[in-house]
Amino acid sequence: MNALFNLLEKIKTKPGLYLGTASISNLRMFILGYRFSRSELDITNTETESDFYKNFQPWLQNRLSIHSVNAWDKIILLTCIDEKAAFDYFFQLLDEFIQRDKSQDVDPILAEPSSKTSKNSQQVALSTFDCSLSKSDRSPEMPNLPNR
Asked: Where are the alpha helices (DSSP H) in 41-109?
């Protein structure tokens, strides 16, 4: 293991000491701060840390079949009832990520979403998009989206 994963193990056992509460959002902010402070001190990431920073998000999106611009903490939170449950689930997912077959990793930029995924993404986008303007209020550049 390395410093990041050793630290995450400590956080897992005593989240209040490091984060205040067992919260997935607080954990992500802590990890971002940890990464920033190491870069400010010119400490190079280990190979496993770089792997986590680069590949955890795309791996998670494939694992949960959720393709979103949201950060990994919000993606996990989408699947859980609250911040604490998402915090606990993160560590299960992290163990899976560490144990994964790296040869199966796909560069997220090169990956093409399936037509089913694209259709689901479009449905989610349409259902969350604010379509409060009537057709007559829309400018000519605006697409004809369904009214709610």
From this structure: 47-64, 72-78, 83-99
